[in-house]
């Protein structure tokens, strides 16, 4: 008999994935959730009775178990088997393939899970995710190590407190907006970015995550490039004009027209979607220390 406990911490990637439900629902209750699994999870799921299909995000993971939290807040533990298929949709660095490894199932990742019933619980037969979401989740998980590599002794001191931790609290988000097809910053946006940097500077162990977006005007390839240019422009201003240190910056990303903040069918909505979000993140492990 194997008992796994899900702790109270789960990844917060609210602004990173631009999915408000994650920001509001990803934190587990203060009390741990015990899940008892009898015997070894079978490698062959053929013939097992079909279980429910779950849609939500991975709010915790422990060994061979994940916890899926739905939009209504319900939490369901699911075992992962050697027979579990993990599949992505949408292309990112060749991830558009039938089978990913179980290591792709990161905290905070939106998923759709098909299950079978076994031993009084559920085993995942098929896990589907979007490559774009996986890209962002991987960026959150590995960005700290990537950003801190080959830095000064002071950087290493900070790294020692946050390395290998993928749980973050979002302490604030600043959005700056752009004209159609443009990535230049207005004077107001420049001032707002420096204000955000000053806010983050006042917090111990704060990191910045910059994510660029577009409205739905234009084709995907153009919008992907445009969103990346907007994110890069914001990063440059934060570092060059606002004094934000590069080692405290997670890798920026462009999300094109994904996850719109408003309705793209209206002028006002498109204005809201032509944005870059600057998110202040603090590891849960060091928040408040």
Our measurement of the CA-to-CA distance between the termini, rounded to an integer number of angstroms, reads 38 Å
Give helix % range.
25-40%
Given helix and strand content, the structural type is alpha+beta
The number of E-state strands comes to 11
Query: Topology as H/E string?
Result: EHHEEEEEEHHEHEHEHE
Please, how many helices? 7
How does the overall form come out from the CA principal axes? elongated
Reported CATH architecture of the largest domain? 2-Layer Sandwich
Low-confidence stretches: 1-38, 91-97, 143-165
The CATH first-level class of the largest domain comes to Alpha Beta
Beta-strand fraction estimate: 25-35%
Overall pLDDT confidence:
75
Total domain modules: 2
The CATH homologous superfamily of the largest domain is named: OmpA-like domain
Q: What is the radius of gyration computed over CA atoms, rounded to a whole number of angstroms?
A: 20 Å
């Amino acid at each position: 008999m194997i008992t796994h406990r899900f702790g109270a911490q789960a990844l917060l990637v609210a602004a990173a994935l631009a999915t408000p439900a994650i920001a509001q629902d990803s934190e587990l209750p203060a009390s741990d959730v015990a899940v008892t699994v009898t015997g070894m999870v079978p490698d062959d799921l053929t013939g097992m009775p079909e279980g429910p299909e779950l849609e939500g995000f991975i709010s915790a993971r422990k060994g061979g178990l994940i916890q899926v939290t739905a939009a209504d807040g319900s939490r369901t533990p699911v075992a992962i088997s050697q027979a579990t298929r993990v599949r992505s949709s949408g292309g990112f660095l060749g991830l558009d393939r039938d089978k990913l490894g179980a290591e792709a199932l990161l905290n905070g990742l939106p998923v759709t899970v098909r299950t079978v019933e076994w031993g009084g619980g559920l085993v995942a037969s098929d896990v589907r995710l979007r490559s774009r979401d996986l890209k962002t989740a991987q960026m959150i998980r590995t960005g700290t190590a990537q950003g801190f590599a080959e830095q000064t002794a002071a950087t290493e001191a900070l790294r020692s407190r946050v390395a290998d931790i993928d749980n973050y609290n979002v302490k604030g988000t600043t959005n700056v907006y752009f004209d159609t097809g443009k990535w230049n910053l207005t004077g107001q946006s420049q001032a707002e970015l420096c204000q955000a940097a000053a806010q983050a500077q006042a917090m111990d162990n704060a990191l910045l995550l910059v994510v660029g977006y577009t409205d739905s005007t234009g084709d995907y390839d153009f919008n992907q490039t445009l969103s990346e240019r907007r994110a890069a422009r914001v990063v440059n201003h934060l570092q060059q004009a606002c004094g934000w240190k590069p080692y405290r910056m997670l890798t920026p990303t462009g999300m094109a027209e994904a996850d719109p903040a408003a309705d793209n069918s209206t002028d006002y909505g498109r204005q809201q979607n032509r944005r870059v979000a600057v998110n202040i993140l603090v590891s849960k492990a060091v928040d408040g220390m």
